[in-house]
């Protein structure tokens, strides 16, 4: 156990001191650390890549467990269907790279997402028209209440957009179910699954719904993400963020109002299997932020929201701002506190609600903070 600051473990590089840290390099060490904390009635914070946590500067009095287990193993194969079990602490981008290298399709459009494999089913992470729910077979967990191993099948995970039964069981950032491994059902083939996202299809030179070579899709996704500051780079302050801070809002058809312009981009809402959900529309959070007057870099000196008459630098002293590459990321420019990053997010959230009547929902776990 070592004293540390949460800022050392999170991609936004904010967060105060923690009482204790345990490095769990194996499943056995993870279970032991969680059991010890539960026996001592300590609050448990699991940290993988630290990309989905925004913490305040106040001390965290519980146990921080850094999940660093590794392993990507083919556990079954029949015809072109391949089941791959991945340890919870395996870096997610490595999972994508390794499965693509083995000629396994299903995860290629999720390249470059920071964090670890164990976090992906909790948040039902997604990008470029795909979500992990579309390939997850089962998730093996430790139930901290029942003190036993518990495996969730697809239906039991109750996936929805950026949500799952695992996420809903969390309390103040601490999980009831500790993910031990995730098993994905992939396909052995040279080409990707059909490309759904128009921007990605254009970059690949194919039509939406067509396929492309696996490695080319992965590389193209990485390039697109990097252009938006969504691939971690220690030399680029635009990447010191939680990635997309807000989810794309889903609005029921009957709740749509004329406050939302007719030209606002609208997308179908898909269920966990990738089928369209009737009666609901998904909007682009980035578009709403931009058209509520918050341009790229809002929060830096010299920036303003003319529509709402807001001075950017007055929000957090220029120490936190929207990314200069993408309005959906809230960034630490070098010396921000968690409160200052939250202040920028809060200003954006309230501004979008004022202009469009839509309250954006944050993606990261907020520790000691609120919007």
Describe this structure in a few short sentences.
The chain has helices at residues 27-39, 92-101, 120-123, 154-157, 165-168, 198-204, 214-227, 285-291, 313-316, 338-356; strands at 4-5, 17-24, 44-47, 53-55, 60-67, 72-78, 81-87, 104-105, 126-127, 130-131, 136-143, 148-153, 177-188, 250-252, 266-270, 276-283, 304-305, 310-311, 320-322, 330-332, 365-367.
Can you walk me through this structure?
The protein has 371 residues and is of the alpha+beta class. Helix content is 23%, strand content 27%. Strand 9 and strand 10 form a beta hairpin. The radius of gyration is 20 Å and the shape is globular. The relative contact order is 0.13. Residues 14-189 form the FAD-binding PCMH-type domain. It catalyses: UDP-N-acetyl-alpha-D-muramate + NADP(+) = UDP-N-acetyl-3-O-(1-carboxyvinyl)-alpha-D-glucosamine + NADPH + H(+). This is UDP-N-acetylenolpyruvoylglucosamine reductase.
SSE map:
Layout: E1 4-5, E2 17-24, H1 27-39, E3 44-47, E4 53-55, E5 60-67, E6 72-78, E7 81-87, H2 92-101, E8 104-105, H3 120-123, E9 126-127, E10 130-131, E11 136-143, E12 148-153, H4 154-157, H5 165-168, E13 177-188, H6 198-204, H7 214-227, E14 250-252, E15 266-270, E16 276-283, H8 285-291, E17 304-305, E18 310-311, H9 313-316, E19 320-322, E20 330-332, H10 338-356, E21 365-367
Parallel strand pairs: 2-5, 3-5, 4-21
Antiparallel strand pairs: 1-2, 6-7, 7-13, 8-13, 9-10, 11-12, 11-13, 14-16, 15-16, 17-18, 19-20
Subcellular location: Cytoplasm
Pathway: Cell wall biogenesis; peptidoglycan biosynthesis
InterPro entries: FAD-bd_PCMH, FAD-bd_PCMH-like_sf, FAD-bd_PCMH_sub1, FAD-bd_PCMH_sub2, MurB, MurB_C, MurB_C_sf, Oxid_FAD_bind_N
């Amino acid at each position: 156990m070592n004293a540390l600051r949460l800022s050392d473990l999170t991609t936004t590089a904010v967060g105060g001191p923690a009482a204790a840290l345990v490095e769990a390099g194996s499943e056995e060490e993870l279970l032991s650390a969680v059991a010890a904390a539960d026996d001592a009635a300590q609050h448990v914070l699991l940290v993988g890549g630290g990309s989905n946590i925004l913490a305040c500067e106040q001390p965290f009095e519980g146990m921080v467990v850094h999940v660093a287990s590794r392993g990507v193993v083919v556990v079954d194969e029949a015809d072109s269907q391949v089941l791959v079990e991945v340890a919870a602490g395996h870096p997610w981008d490595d999972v994508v790279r390794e499965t693509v290298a083995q000629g396994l399709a299903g995860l290629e459009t999720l390249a470059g997402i920071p964090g670890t494999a164990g976090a992906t089913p909790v948040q039902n992470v997604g990008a470029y028209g795909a979500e992990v729910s579309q390939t997850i077979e089962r998730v093996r967990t430790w139930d901290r209440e029942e003190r036993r191993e518990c495996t969730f099948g697809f239906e039991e995970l109750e996936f929805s957009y950026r949500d799952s039964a695992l996420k809903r069981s969390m309390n103040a950032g601490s999980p009831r179910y500790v993910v031990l491994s995730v098993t994905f059902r992939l396909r052995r083939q040279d080409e990707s699954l059909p490309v759904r996202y128009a921007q990605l299809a254009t970059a690949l030179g194919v039509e939406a719904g067509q396929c492309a070579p696996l490695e080319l899709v992965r590389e193209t996704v990485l390039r697109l993400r990097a252009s938006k500051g969504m691939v971690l780079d220690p030399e680029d302050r635009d990447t010191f963020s939680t990635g997309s801070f807000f989810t794309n809002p889903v609005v029921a058809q009957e709740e749509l109002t004329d406050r939302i312009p007719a030209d606002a981009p609208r997308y179908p809402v898909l269920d966990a299997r990738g089928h369209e959900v009737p009666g609901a529309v998904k909007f682009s959070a980035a578009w709403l932020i931009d058209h509520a007057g918050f341009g790229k870099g809002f929060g830096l000196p010299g920036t303003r929201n003319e529509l709402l008459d807001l001075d950017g630098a007055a929000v957090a002293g220029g120490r936190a701002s929207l990314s200069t590459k993408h309005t959906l990321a809230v960034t630490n420019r070098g010396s921000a506190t968690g409160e200052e990053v939250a202040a920028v997010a809060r200003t954006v959230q309230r501004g979008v609600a004022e202009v469009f009547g839509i309250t954006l929902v944050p993606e990261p776990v907020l520790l000691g903070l609120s919007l």
